[in-house]
Amino acid sequence: MLANCVWCFRTLRQGRCRIEVDSEGDYVISSTNRQPEIGFCAAIGKPASRSIGAVALLVAMVSGFPAGADENRQRPLQSVAEEALPVVLAQFQIPSQTPGGKAPALPKRLTYQYNYGTESEINYRMDPDLNKGVKDDVFVVTPELEGFITYRPTDWLEVTVEIEVLRDISISRQKLTTLPNGDLERAPADRFELLIDQAHVTLKGVTDPFEFTVGRRNFEDDLHTLYDTSIDVAMVTFKPGRALRVEASVGRENFIDWDLLNSNPKDRNDTYMLYSEYRGIENIKLAGYAVYRDDNLHQEGQPFLLGARSIGYPTERTNYWIDLAHVRGEDEEGRKLRGYAVNLGGTYRFADLPFNPSFTLGYAFGSGDDPGDSSTNNEFRQTGLGSNEMRFSGVSELKIYGEVLDPELSNLHIFTAGLGFRPAEDVYLDLVYHHYELDQFADELRNSAITAQLNPNAINPSKNVGDALDVVLGFRNVFGVRGLGVDVRVGWLFPGRAFRRNVGNEDEPAFRDADLGFSLVAKALF
């Protein structure tokens, strides 16, 4: 159980959850953005497990345990607990465990939390147009520093501020590129930002069972398909008990320009979000959501996304996710939106075998627009706020729909199979395969990292988009430095017949297969 607790509690060090004491005096973990794994927090609130939970909490707050559910599975719980006590924190020292196994006393409120670190990146993308004859490779290095502090002067007030500074360094990037559709694309300017990524105030306690938050706040859902970004919001949270949590918010991604070094355009998309989750079933989370986006510039329409999901760990060896969604509203041309999507999968871990292998299967589908229906757009659309990144069996987040193609889940069938290994104590490996098929014939993919056109001719159209292979490596405690990690994600796209292009003419067509796509992302984490 301690390994699970460490997985959850490490997010407290990152500001993604907080410790609270309920009316019965039990310690509970309350998520600030729904990111921690479900079910693992429940043990700390059980009287029989409170001493274990307290120890696990302290270990997680001051240690550099990698965020992996198997990290301490082979270590006896007693030895971990003995090593952890006594522990000195910034505010207090936990006494040794009292005779009789009673839990050490914890304060009812942490007056402050802080964290600092880096998530610097190297990004390389080769031939995004899948044509080696065109120079459009991108190679950018982005060093970054970040830090946050949360201050709780009273039981009813919480203030959080997070600041990051980053700079893009272009090693190779074409200033002007001709896209396959003939449009000219100008490369974005290298960023040099001093950004306030979070700055919000939360009122709680005296307003129970409600909490009120105003300001810029980070939003992340478990699958990162709804949102993985910071939004300027006014939010109300309803928590009638431990099992149920409901959030309602309204805001914009950039209602205020928070970049202290540059002047950036403000967002004109009003975003309304309702998210409800239920945790009354052990290790299972049930959730429902509604996201409405109103584009005041009339470029993206007014999509209204409705969905339900279940995510859980039925056993120590298995986990699953099921996400069903339906989009309504209007598109940018005023047509009705009526799309639907499903994203499901699961992982099984062979904990007793060498290298702790695991196997993941997944399937995702987003409907496409039926060309025979001119009054209704059947294309599914995501919110545009997510990153589509999650973990399978290792410690590294990866693009769940493929590193190279990286599409929005729209007009696509995506079949996924993955193998995970732990070849060394602090090394994690994921091998992931994807196969892509169109739902409806189309000439492009919505919001894909690939700029190549689909079916550029009508002579021999195809729905076969291709196959992809991703290799993801995660290293933790690099060079023996606790907390230092490196993630490397490498991807190849093997284009299918839908990307074949006619290099001849209409009278004498000559088809040529598209070239290989490649991407590499390396991250340094601390």
Task: Provide an overview of this structure.
The chain is mainly β. It has 2 domains: 2-94, no CATH class; 112-525, Beta Barrel (Porin), CATH 2.40.160. Helix content is 6%, strand content 48%. It is built from 3 helices and 33 strands. The chain has helices spanning 2-13, 50-62, 77-84; strands at 17-21, 27-31, 87-88, 93-94, 112-117, 119-126, 138-142, 144-154, 157-167, 169-173, 176-178, 184-186, 192-203, 210-220, 228-238, 244-252, 269-281, 284-295, 302-315, 318-330, 336-337, 339-349, 358-366, 376-377, 389-390, 398-399, 412-424, 427-438, 464-476, 485-495, 501-502, 511-512, 517-525. It has a 21-stranded antiparallel beta sheet, with no helix packed on it. A two-stranded antiparallel ribbon has the order 1-2. Strands 3-4 form a two-stranded antiparallel ribbon. A hairpin with a 5-residue loop joins strand 1 (17-21) and strand 2 (27-31). Helix 1 (2-13) crosses helix 2 (50-62). The chain is globular, with a radius of gyration of 24 Å. The relative contact order is 0.10.
